[in-house]
Task: inverse folding
């Protein structure tokens, strides 16, 4: 199925079936840092114990088997059990392959999770270039003005120069936050369009089980 998101043609496909071959495991990595022995004078030593850091990573792999026998192997960390019915969706730009699934729907539990990281980059970063150019233009104006005053008014313009630099730093911070918010908004909108398209298309829902 094809849908249009941000003016781009995006195809949606997936699989619906039962969870099988569920396997979960963890990896634990331990590192130490610090720790030293200090001389506190004649006959005295102070021992500082090293700091121990433990990092545990959870892994999960499983198969989704459709009624037709079609299979798909997935990875993640989802609350799944053998035999539960799930629906997995992935999406890609027309003519391109996908990098992973974007929606995991546990139909048995009626819970779903989204994976915006695997959306096509063109959707995630839609409008980012235009936004960046706007901020760069404003920065150029502010920086140009901050240079103009000290060159024109000598010492009297020094304060304006540093105020201009401060304004540039503030603009950079605001631009970074604006960029992150736009990325999140793009991802949310794209995922909403994908889920709505599937919910409103019974034929596509049937094809997921085929």
Result:
């Amino acid at each position: 199925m094809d849908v249009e998101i941000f003016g781009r043609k995006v195809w949606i496909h997936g699989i619906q079936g039962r969870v099988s071959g569920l396997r979960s495991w963890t990896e634990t990595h331990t590192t130490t840092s610090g720790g030293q022995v200090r001389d506190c004078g004649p006959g005295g030593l102070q021992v500082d114990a090293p700091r121990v850091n433990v990092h545990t990573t959870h892994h999960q792999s499983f198969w989704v088997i459709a009624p037709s026998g079609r299979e798909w192997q997935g990875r993640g960390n989802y609350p799944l059990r053998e035999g539960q019915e799930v629906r997995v969706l992935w999406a890609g730009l027309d003519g391109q392959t996908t990098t992973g699934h974007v929606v995991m729907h546990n139909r048995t539990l009626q819970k779903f999770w989204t994976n915006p990281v695997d959306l096509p980059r063109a959707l995630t970063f839609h409008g980012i270039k235009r936004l960046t150019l706007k901020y760069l233009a404003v920065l150029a104006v502010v920086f140009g003005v901050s240079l103009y005053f000290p060159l024109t008014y000598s010492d009297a313009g020094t304060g304006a120069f540093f105020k201009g630099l401060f304004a540039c730093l503030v603009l950079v911070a605001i631009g970074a936050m604006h960029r992150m918010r736009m990325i999140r908004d793009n991802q949310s909108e794209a995922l909403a369009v994908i889920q709505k398209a599937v919910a409103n298309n019974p034929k596509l829902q049937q094809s997921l089980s085929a």
